[in-house]
From TrEMBL:
Coiled coil: none annotated. It holds the Pfam family MannoseP_isomer. Residues 3-269 form the Nucleotidyl transferase domain. Its EC number is 2.7.7.13. Belongs to the mannose-6-phosphate isomerase type 2 family. Residues 283-336 form the MannoseP isomerase/GMP-like beta-helix domain. Keywords: GTP-binding, Isomerase, Nucleotide-binding, Nucleotidyltransferase, Transferase. Residues 342-454 form the Mannose-6-phosphate isomerase type II C-terminal domain. This is mannose-1-phosphate guanylyltransferase. GO terms for molecular function: GTP binding; isomerase activity; mannose-1-phosphate guanylyltransferase (GTP) activity. It catalyses: alpha-D-mannose 1-phosphate + GTP + H(+) = GDP-alpha-D-mannose + diphosphate. GO terms for biological process: GDP-mannose biosynthetic process; polysaccharide biosynthetic process. It comes from Sulfurovum indicum.
Length: 460
């Protein structure tokens, strides 16, 4: 069985910890593993192969998160423009052998019981081998309007309703034979393709054309922006699942589950767990305050005479909202977009193919970063027009090229790169290289770069 992990979402309801270049599924809560990493690890025991579908802009973020997992048998579909789950799942099926069983899983869900999860997926896999499309259903505990609902009679799906109104959702709970749609599906690739041809032939044919125009290298498939320009953006639920009339089965999952779609969801499932730094006693002081969800970074947060709040502190932004209102954080994101703010797109830590960097301080005249370079990796040979750089080694060994000079630097040693000088940083060692970079100049944005050589074929 191949597990297909869908990981291209932006997670605007989880700002400020979620950004365009660091969506919620990749956020490492409390220095722990991200939702994406947990999804990979949760499915490895069940999978012969992992196929990841993600946005091309998140490629190096995905690869960075897989770093250290060992030799994972994996393949990738990179979308230049995300067109929702229907296109992504059809492409995954087209990228598979016809008799292959695919298990489609979102990358941003939290499931607490690994044993129960494996038992459920194995049952779904067995049904999928009999040419069924199989959904994994979740016990509906409240009238949620953000989930799809599956009406069932035992294993048989009677009907599928996507995101109903609250009154309708409440009636579903009263009837008792409805499950939330967990967004997890199992099917044989050939059977799924045949159902798409039968039910949604026009959309299927357009996806086939886009897939055939893809640039394929080794285990990677790059979907070009031009090929999907006129492709409808629609979920697999709206496009296909609501229209299926036969061979549609459901298997219930008896484990604590959350789609982690808002801070209220985090507060509900993560209290008193080690998953996220919620109400960390070392970083919070509570005076006559109760029922607050505090997600903190390094800073101390004190509350006095306040109740029922969600407080999210990151290095460059602070969110305060009432519990029950966190779904509306997306309105903050809309306002930031109107202001053309980088706070929508860029997190304080940015993944790069060679490692990552964290902005420590950003001023009009200077910027400081922590740079981490993985063993055996190197940055491009480059220069800058408007800034000078100072590099200080914190740990590890750095091989530094400045002009025609190449030298090795150890901890506590430094070098200087004047504006316009060609330079390169690489890690020849077997442990991470950690550097502090101080930039000084009139313009300090990331687009002030000229690349002469690059191991990752980047031009900007």
């Amino acid at each position: 069985m191949t597990t297909v992990i869908l990981s291209g979402g932006n997670g605007t309801r989880m700002w400020p910890i979620s950004r365009t270049l660091m969506p919620k599924q990749f956020v490492r809560f409390d220095n722990n593993r991200s939702l994406f990493q947990r999804t990979v690890l949760r499915n490895l025991p069940l999978s012969d192969k992992i196929m990841i579908v993600s946005n091309d802009a998140q490629k190096f973020l995905v690869l960075d998160q897989l770093y250290g997992f060992g030799n994972v048998n994996s393949s990738y579909i990179w979308e230049s423009i995300g067109k929702n789950s229907a296109a992504a799942i059809i492409m995954a099926a087209l990228n598979s052998d016809e008799d292959e069983i695919l298990c489609i899983v979102p990358s941003d869900h939290l499931i607490k019981d690994q044993s129960e999860y494996e038992k459920t997926i194995r049952k779904a896999e067995a049904l999928a081998k009999e040419n069924n499309i199989v959904a994994v259903g979740i016990e509906a505990t409240f009238p949620a309007t953000g989930y799809g609902y599956i009406c069932h009679d035992g294993e048989d799906v009677i009907s599928f309703t996507e995101k109903p109104e609250e009154d309708t959702a409440r009636s579903f709970l009263e009837q008792g034979n409805y499950l939330w749609n967990g967004g997890i599906y199992c099917f044989k690739a050939s059977h799924f393709i045949n159902e798409c041809k039968r039910v949604i032939p026009e959309l299927f044919e357009k996806v086939v054309q886009a897939f055939n125009a893809a640039v394929v290298t080794d285990n990677e498939c790059h979907i070009t922006a031009q090929s999907v320009e006129n492709l409808e953006s629609v979920s697999i639920d709206d496009a296909l699942m609501e229209k299926l009339s036969s061979n549609f089965k459901v298997v219930p999952l008896s484990a604590k589950w959350s789609d982690m779609g808002s801070f209220d969801a985090i507060d509900d499932i993560c209290e008193n767990t080690d998953y996220i730094n919620v109400n960390n006693n070392e970083n919070t002081i509570s005076i006559r305050s109760k029922n607050n969800c505090i997600i903190s970074s390094e800073r101390m947060i004190a509350t006095v005479d306040v109740n029922d709040l969600i407080i999210v502190d990151t290095p460059d932004a602070l969110l305060i909202t009432k519990k029950g209102s966190s779904q509306d954080v997306k309105e903050v994101v809309k306002e930031l977009k109107k202001r053309n703010s980088d706070l929508v797109t860029t997190p304080s830590t940015v993944a790069r193919p060679w490692g990552n960097y964290t902005v420590l301080e950003n001023n009009k005249a200077y910027k400081t970063k922590k740079i981490v370079v993985r063993p055996g990796k190197r940055l491009s040979l480059q220069s800058h027009f408007h800034r000078n750089e100072h590099w200080i080694v914190v740990s590890g060994t750095a091989r530094v090229t400045v002009g025609d000079e190449v030298k090795l630097l150890q901890a506590n040693e430094s070098t200087y790169i004047p504006a316009g000088e060609k330079h390169r940083l690489e890690n020849p060692g077997v442990i991470d290289l950690v550097m502090i970079e101080a930039q000084v100049g009139e313009y300090l944005e990331e687009d002030d770069i000229v690349r002469y050589e690059d191991d990752f074929n980047r031009v900007a």
